[in-house]
């Protein structure tokens, strides 16, 4: 049965995009593939906000992050990680696994990275020992989005190479990699671009490529330099996920046809509607008011609510799938994503089903307040973006 996916990836994929996967195979070293690769790379540049090179890896987002860390830094170098949740911690873990010395800036769960705290840490690095800064654009585990423009200002002219995980952020809100002087930004096909999983998109600055050339590390499959050399030939070094690339090309074409502003407004509008629904039924949002993500809303489970039971009921009664909490937030939050081929009616159905199941668990009357509040918020959002 078709499910309504509100997990923050993989997301609901539009029928035209799914249908593209069914096209016949082609030679991945032939001219048709080269043309597809060129269109995807060119289509991704404005989404990253870069005029630089974008390479595609046959992997999920984590492969792109590992490629970024291992291509830019050598074991023993010092990097500063600024995690605001599970995925930021995972990026720091990749760096440690690669043998880097990792310092961390601590941030309370639900808060965004404080640019002033980052600026202070960098100002204290008089010897310029910090070779890299590891950041998360959108932290999917807590529903927090960092203010990347403010963070870029905080980094200022510190020479560290900046790696940004924008796996669950890119495409859903404005992103200006070149203006913000980030060196490697990583995203993935199954999030805001709403294609199936299987491709990591990795944008690298000129400074990033120079750093990479100066660091001949031992790496093979996830070598960004090799990916760039082959991209110049219209190829990938290894056999690519051709079907997912067909779909990604179609998804980028749909994105461009809708226009980025409309896509940004859709994500922001849905997130606002979900937060309004939560407020209407007395549910607190986990992220701080100045830190809300537009791609995922994390809602605190009221005392006594069994999150696993709510998620099971949603799945079995309504074919609606929402996320739970990860790590220390397991059992404490419900996460509802806004990415993917979702209509306003889908969002209303999602918050309504959640309201019904929470009402049943909390022995309160279901009155449809979440749905009403979300509908009002959506109509306001449409009015303000028309
Ligand atoms: N980073 C963030 C912020 C994510 O949300 C995810 C996945 O949800 C990842 C990294 C890992 O990406 P993947 O599962 O595509 O490897």
Describe what this molecule looks like in 3D.
- The structure is a single chain.
- By secondary structure, the protein is α/β, with parallel strands linked by helices.
- It contains 14 helices and 13 strands.
- The protein has helices at residues 15-20, 31-48, 61-72, 86-97, 115-123, 148-155, 177-180, 206-213, 224-232, 242-258, 260-280, 307-318, 344-362, 369-385; strands spanning 4-5, 53-57, 78-81, 101-104, 130-136, 138-139, 144-145, 161-165, 184-188, 200-204, 296-300, 320-321, 333-337.
- Strand 6 and strand 7 form a beta hairpin.
- Helix 2 (31-48) packs across helix 10 (242-258), helix 11 (260-280) packs parallel to helix 13 and helix 13 (344-362) runs antiparallel to helix 14 (369-385).
- The model has no long low-confidence stretch (mean pLDDT 96).
- The structure holds pyridoxal-5'-phosphate.
Trace the largest sheet across and list its strands.
2-10-9-8-5-3-4
Q: What is the string of SSEs from the N terminus onward?
A: EHHEHEHEHEEEHEHEEHHHHEHEEHH
Largest sheet: 7 strands, mixed
N- and C-termini, Cα separation: 35 Å
Task: Output the radius of gyration.
Answer: 21 Å
Nearest-integer average pLDDT: 96
**Small molecules held by this entry:** pyridoxal-5'-phosphate
Q: Treating each run of at least 4 consecutive H or I residues as one helix, how many helices? A: 14
Give the helix level as a range of percent: 40-55%
Question: Could you give the count of β-strands?
Answer: 13
Structural class: alpha/beta
Beta-strand content bin = 5-15%
């Amino acid at each position: 049965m078709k499910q309504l996916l509100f997990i923050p990836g993989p997301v609901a994929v539009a029928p035209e995009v799914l249908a593209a996967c069914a096209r016949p195979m082609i030679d991945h070293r032939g001219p048709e593939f080269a043309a597809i690769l060129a269109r995807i790379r060119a289509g991704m540049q404005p989404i990253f906000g870069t005029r630089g090179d974008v390479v595609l890896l046959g992997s999920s987002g984590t492969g792109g992050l590992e490629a970024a860390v291992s291509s830019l830094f050598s074991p023993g170098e010092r990097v500063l990680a600024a995690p605001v949740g599970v995925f930021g911690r995972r990026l720091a873990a990749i760096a440690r696994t690669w043998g880097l010395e990792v310092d961390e800036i601590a941030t309370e769960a639900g808060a965004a990275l404080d640019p002033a705290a980052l600026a202070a840490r960098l100002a204290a690095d008089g010897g310029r020992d910090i070779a890299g800064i590891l950041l998360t654009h959108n932290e999917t585990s807590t529903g927090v989005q960092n203010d990347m423009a403010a963070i870029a200002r905080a980094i200022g002219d510190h020479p560290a190479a900046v790696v940004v995980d924008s796996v669950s952020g890119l495409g859903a809100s404005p992103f200006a990699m070149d203006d913000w002087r980030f060196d490697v930004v990583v995203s993935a096909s199954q999030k805001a671009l709403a294609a199936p999983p299987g491709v990591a998109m990795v944008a690298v600055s000129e400074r990033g490529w120079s750093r990479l050339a100066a660091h001949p590390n031992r790496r093979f499959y996830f070598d960004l330099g090799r990916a760039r050399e082959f991209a110049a030939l219209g190829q990938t070094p290894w056999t690519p996920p051709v079907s997912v690339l067909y779909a990604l090309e179609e998804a980028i074409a749909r994105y461009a046809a809708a226009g980025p502003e409309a896509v940004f407004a859709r994500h922001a509008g849905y997130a606002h509607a979900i937060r309004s629904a939560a407020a209407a039924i007395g549910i607190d949002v986990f992220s701080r008011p100045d830190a809300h993500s537009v791609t995922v809303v994390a809602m605190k489970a009221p005392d006594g609510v069994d999150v696993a039971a709510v998620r099971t009921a949603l799945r079995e009664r309504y074919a609606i799938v929402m996320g739970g909490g990860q790590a220390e937030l397991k059992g404490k939050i419900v996460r509802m994503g806004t990415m993917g081929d979702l209509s306003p009616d889908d969002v209303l159905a999602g918050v309504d089903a959640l309201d019904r199941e929470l009402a049943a668990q909390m022995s309160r009357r279901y009155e449809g307040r979440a749905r009403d509040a979300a509908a009002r918020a959506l109509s306001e959002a449409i009015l303000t973006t028309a």
